Amino acid sequence: MTSSILRVENLTKRFGGVVAFEDVSFKVAPGEITSLIGPNGAGKTTVFNLITGLYDKTAGCIWFNATGDDPTDVSEPVFDPLHAAMVSLVSAGVGLIALAHPTARRRLYYLRCTPDFMTCQGIARTFQNSRLFNDLSVLDNVKVGLHARANANAVDAILQTLRHRREESEIEAAAGKYLAFVGLAGRATNAASDLAYGEQRRLEIARALATQPKLLLLDEPAAGMNPTETNDLIALIRKTRDAGVTVFLIEHDMKLVMEISDRVIVLNHGRKIADGTPEEVRANPEVIAAYLGEETPRDGKDDA
Amino acid sequence: MANPLREMTRYTQTWWDSARGNPWRLAQGVIVVAVVFVMVTAPILPIPQQYRARIADIFLLCIIYSIIAIGLNVVTGYTGLLDLGIVAFAGIGAYTATILFDRPWMQFPGAFLLVLLVGGWHAAAWGVVRGAPTLRLSGDYYAIVTFAFAEIVRIVIRNEAWLTGGGNGFKNFPLLNPLGAKLNGGAYDGILKTAGYWSYPSGGMWHSGTWQFYYLSLFVLVVTVITMRRLENSRTGRAWFAMKADETSASTSGINLNNYKMVSFAISAFFAGIGGALLGFKTNTVSTNVFDFWFSVVVLCGLVLGGMGSITGVVTGTFIVYGLGELLREQIRIGDAVLKVDDRARFLMFGLLLIVVMVFRPQGFFPRKRSADTGDEASDGDASLFHLGGRTE
């Protein structure tokens, strides 16, 4: 088995009775660009939300391998002693009864991996409709992305400790470099909401990159872009990959997908129907059927 | 705000650059300088004593309420959660400081500063207690919980008369010397017997009408403002602003929402507690009639008026609301006629003012600026945090 940075095994997500997807398994190889495609409602964004910890899984595993030799199941809730102590304390001991019941125990005493934990582990993402901090300046948006890589707390800030001052100057300098990386160096002082649409998408990528991810998830990065902007985006994604970040993206723009992907995964109705190189996927009859509909044999009478 | 002096120089420079050829900007600066001048010199102005005392009294009230409003601003302006219960923390701070300061052994120099801090810490602890179960709430639901908590605190204080003096509260505080030790509290023999019925002889050195108390309050306000300015430009402040703008993308940017909400609750309650303690000593009264629901509403009113999330705005709004509230108490005599606004009608003025401001300037007088004001300074810092350079260069 080749090494993979992300390995999803039999992942299932149900919202009540509605099955978003069932038994989906795939791998993302490090240093590659992998695309996740499929018709609307296939469950692509839900997969992303599970990987980044925004949703709870119903079943399955998500193995994330940041360092290359130590995969951990980031979807599994972990027992947190401090949290458990707080629950016992707040419930005045009544919560201890829940220890006897497996489901209740899991609900009360285990903490699942929250999005901020996933980010610290090395998974960053952008959103389908860009979700920037509109009130903040462009530079501050990127600085927020660097949050996970700094340690100064409120007391450091109030006392202006050495750690705070050192980190602030490092953050300031690094944020500028991330902006330059995505080509927004000149817009640092603008409010994020004043940027053009394409620039906003790139700022979101800069913010995600500033969290210093091993794996970058892009949710429809080219949606609503004109061909020039799309070409710029393709170059940016390649540049990101070349800088050592594995890219995993959802996209509807087939030109972009086929051009940059090393591997394509196709979801349809919550099921994986194909997984391979762009050429393989393009030739897969099931994929063609999902996108274009099935070919029905024509009847002679209709023809006449 | 690493350096307050440099910051002030920069402010003055920016103002002067924009004030040339702009009479409104110029007037703004002149008003600010005049108000700040009177604020700093109020207790020592060379004018008749009765006017000086009144002016200093109004400014002192505004200063103390500004401290509380800045505390409220942390939760409401930075983190973006509507808080209708700031009075709970002001009340906890005031009662804690008063009860503690009344202990016979509170006789050492600096005792007054110590009880202020303990009042703040006690309020902060309750901020955390209130915050823990409300971490998942937002909007109206959060506001209802804060309101309910404030009412719980008020009712508990009203009923636990053995500790808090019940409905009477505390009046006629002991006098202090400039080091913060009581001059005449030694004879007092315990809170259980006489809560609510203290009586101290007047004529001490430092009661709330003196310049010492005034400058102590002003000092606390300055410290509060500097603290907030430092927090605004820090990792913590950015986390708060990010959470206010979008919680989902804040958390996918690596911000632990729960931790940063808790920090903001604690800091907010801390400053509200200190402000409340000062207010108790200033008015010489700590009772549930002062620390009631309308307290929260009027402080919030100042916040909305001035512009949430901006220190300048919050202080301006609070000065307008409380300054106006006090000025409207004044009687104006023209010949035989006496012009006076009815006490109950004063609150109508707030309503009117708020409506006018919301129509013409919905974001408040001085809203938080959206673009960075430090971006033009080229940073010469070490960019070792940038991680994409390795392979491309």
Any overview of this molecule?
The complex is a heterodimer of chains A (304) and B (393). By secondary structure, chain A is α/β, with parallel strands linked by helices. Chain A contains 13 helices and twelve strands. The termini of chain A are far apart. The model of chain A has no long low-confidence stretch (mean pLDDT 89). In chain A, the strands form three sheets. A six-stranded mixed sheet of chain A has the order 8-9-10-3-11-12, with helices on both faces. A four-stranded antiparallel sheet of chain A has the order 2-1-4-5, covered by helices on one side. Chain A has two domains: 6-76 and 112-122 and 213-303, Rossmann fold (3-Layer(aba) Sandwich); 132-211, no CATH class. Chain A is flat and about 80 Å long. Chain B has 393 residues and is mainly alpha-helical. Chain B has a domain at 48-291. Chain B is built from 16 helices and four strands. Chain B has helices spanning 4-19, 23-41, 49-79, 86-101, 111-131, 139-159, 161-164, 191-194, 211-232, 235-245, 247-252, 257-283, 293-306, 311-327, 346-360, 389-392, and strands spanning 170-171, 285-286, 332-334, 337-339. Classes of the chains: A alpha/beta (304), B mainly alpha (393). At the A-B interface, helix 4, helix 5, helix 6, helix 7 and helix 8 of A face helix 9, helix 10, helix 11, helix 12 and helix 16 of B.
Give a quick summary of the entry.
The complex is a heterodimer of chains A (304) and B (393). By secondary structure, chain A is of the alpha/beta class.
Supply the helix-strand structural class of chain B.
mainly alpha
Overall helicity of chain A: 40-55%
- In CATH's first tier, which class of the largest domain in chain A applies? Alpha Beta
CA gyration radius of chain B, whole angstroms: 22 Å
Helical stretch count of chain B? 16
Strand order of the largest sheet of chain B: 1-2
> Number of helical segments of chain A?
13
One letter per element, helices H and strands E, the order of chain B comes to: HHHHHHHEHHHHHEHHEEHH
Of all protein chain pairs, which has the greatest interface, and how many residues does each chain bring to it? Answer: A-B, 68 and 50 residues
Largest sheet of chain A: 6 strands, mixed
Number of strands of chain A: 12
Instruction: Give the strand line-up of the largest sheet of chain A.
Output: 8-9-10-3-11-12
Order of helices and strands of chain A: EEEHEEEHHEHEHHHHEHEHEEHHH
